[in-house]
Specification:
Layout (H helix, E strand, L loop, with lengths): L1 E5 L2 H14 L3 E2 L6 E7 L2 E6 L3 E5 L2 H10 L9 E7 L8 E8 L1 H10 L9 H13 L3 E7 L1 H13 L4 H20 L3
Antiparallel strand pairs: 1-5, 2-3, 3-4, 4-5, 6-7, 7-8
Helix pairs in contact: 1-2
Length: 184
């Protein structure tokens, strides 16, 4: 099964160097969108002009990909939050904050994590089970419609907007995640 990820220009340069160092066999691109194609024994890697890389999921291909991927070194933990749903009628507003380490970033890139708008539902479900199953740290704030509507009315009485309520939801999820990763 092919695996895809996006690489930076620095990583592309590392891939070119890896090809030169190891003598991997390059073949001609098969479309105008391809920048580079490697077909060598059990290694198959295609680099597209967009920066997307597709490779077969073999040990040999994974070793090449591992060699080129940039390692984050500027921090110990990265937090990110996002929301889904509106909360007022059809379902809850859910805000999730996740905390990941530099090795987590590499793992997530390798399994194909990217903007969910670019993924099919089946891919999202597969990735969710892989992410949660690997111990990714996350906390959520879930506001069911009744709670959402009451809170929104309170925010309005305080002359605050929906953006203020969203900021509160994100801040609450972030603070909960921070409290979990650095208790005390």
């Amino acid at each position: 099964m092919p695996v895809s990820l996006s690489i930076s220009l620095t990583e592309l340069e590392k891939l070119r160097n890896a090809i030169l160092e190891t003598g991997l066999k390059r073949t001609n691109p098969k479309s105008e969108y391809e920048l580079l194609r490697i077909e060598d024994r059990d290694i198959s890697i295609i680099v597209y002009k967009s920066g997307k890389v597709v490779h077969n999921d073999t040990d040999a291909s994974r070793r090449v990909i591992d060699k080129i991927l940039e390692r984050e070194r500027d921090y110990d933990l990265l937090l990110g939050s996002d929301e889904v749903g509106k909360g007022e009628w059809y379902g809850p507003l859910v805000v999730v904050c996740a905390a990941i380490t530099p090795p987590d970033i590499l793992r997530l890139r390798k399994i194909g994590v990217k903007d969910s708008k670019l993924l099919a539902r089946a891919q999202i479900e597969r990735l969710a089970s892989e992410i949660i199953g690997k111990g990714t740290i996350y906390r959520d704030v879930t506001l069911m419609p009744e709670t959402y509507n009451k809170m929104y009315a309170e925010f309005q009485r305080e002359q605050k907007s929906l953006n203020d309520m969203m900021a509160w939801s994100h801040a609450t999820a972030i603070n909960s995640t921070l409290a979990y990763v650095s208790p005390g």
